[in-house]
Amino acid sequence: MSVRVMIVVVALAACAPAPRVPAIDPATCAATLRARYAIDTAPAPAICAPLALALAPLGPVAIERIRGLAIVRGGRGRCGDACPDLAAALMSDATLAYYRTSAHALVVTDATFAGPRWRGGAPAPAALRAYLDGLGIDGPALVARLGLGALAPGDPRVFDAIVTRGPHALLGDASLVDLLRHELGHAVELHQADLTDAATAIHGWSSATGWRDTDGPGPTDGNVGGVYANEQPIVASRLVLGLPRGAGSYLQRGPTPTGYARFDPIEDFAEAFRLVHQDPVALGERSPVRLVIAAAGEVSLRAPALRRFVLPGVTALLADGVDPLYAMAILRAHGDALLPAIAPLADPRPLVIPADLDPEVRGLLHEADLVAVIGGLQFRPSDAAIAAYVARVNDEVMELREFNR
């Protein structure tokens, strides 16, 4: 991440709860979505009504991120006939819809409407062996896990079972509206003014929820080897089959709200965004900190059913390893809705910034919004979080100077 990005204030700080949007008449749905959101559903008219319902409760910052979303009608998932391996082909055929970051587009496939099915036929023996090696089980164990009796491991029905059962195994009882809201969550997190801002958002989320790169000690920003990347598809197959998550590009600690949230930090955020509208109590019971983050600008934490999650969620947000800019922006986004629950966490102490820092580094730190004042009370990151942030900014400045030199 660049130094500039590290002092970006998370845009959620400007959020306010969205007014409820009146029900949309199916007869005028397409025109309404064009007028309200600059979204043209003509490529997939059947998506209009569920998409309108998915959009209706979203907050203003989320709506601005989503505005202008292109709807693309596709036949198959991300890689179709060009998948590099069996795991990727299975995940592609199981995909109900997906967000294409580079084009700010929602791709709806045949599976969005008709349900997923396996189209790959019987895999080649080498492809099957590589897949089983990636799962860490043999062919009979794969068939047994699916309850398919005495089928041969390479029988297409084995892979059809993985594809057709996959979405429910990972998402649970998600409706089409819920599915679309998950995809809109990707747009909210990833469609920003600068791609590095999206990396900052992923880094902040990861710091609060325990995600890191396999080959790195700190929170991930969604870049693997310098390139934005989702998790390896074999991990999805392991999760669908109830196997350990196993090795991949990312590591995660702690519980996640759904099976799909265990896939990678990008899907984890989208699942939290879906659940904060679908079932915020369930999200809070599973992860209070995810509820506090995902609810910012979306759902009021004044709701009686959600009050019990406020203190543990904010306590986790103020933990040592959490990105302090991200944490403070989330607090400011909620404002007084967090009081009086978080009053015991107030900390009036000034921040400790070493006096012997490079002047440029000190200037950047003074520009950063590293405290939040709510109801006259000051909330601040821990000393350890501040020290880590200072070190990160200092390293970035020195690295940039060396690069320029």
Element layout with pairings:
Elements: H1 3-6, H2 29-37, H3 48-55, H4 60-66, E1 70-73, H5 86-94, E2 97-100, E3 105-108, H6 110-114, H7 125-135, H8 139-145, H9 156-171, H10 176-190, H11 195-209, E4 211-213, E5 223-224, E6 227-228, H12 233-240, E7 250-252, H13 265-278, H14 280-286, H15 288-295, H16 310-317, H17 324-334, H18 359-367, E8 372-374, E9 377-379, H19 383-404
Parallel strand pairs: 1-3
Antiparallel strand pairs: 2-3, 4-7, 5-6, 8-9
Provide a descriptive summary of the structure in words.
With 405 residues, this protein is mostly helical. 48% of the residues lie in helices and 7% in strands. It contains 19 helices and 9 strands. The strands form 4 sheets. A 3-stranded mixed sheet has the order 1-3-2. A two-stranded antiparallel ribbon has the order 4-7. A hairpin with a 4-residue loop joins strand 2 (97-100) and strand 3 (105-108). Helix 18 (359-367) packs across helix 19 (383-404). The two termini are 19 Å apart. Residues 1-21 have low confidence and may be disordered.
Distance between the termini: 19 Å
Percent strand equals 5-15%
Say how many strands there are.
Answer: 9
Structural class call reads mainly alpha
Helix count, DSSP H or I runs of 4 or more residues = 19
Which characteristics define this entry?
single chain, 405 residues, mainly alpha, 3-stranded mixed beta sheet, two-stranded antiparallel ribbon, disordered N terminus
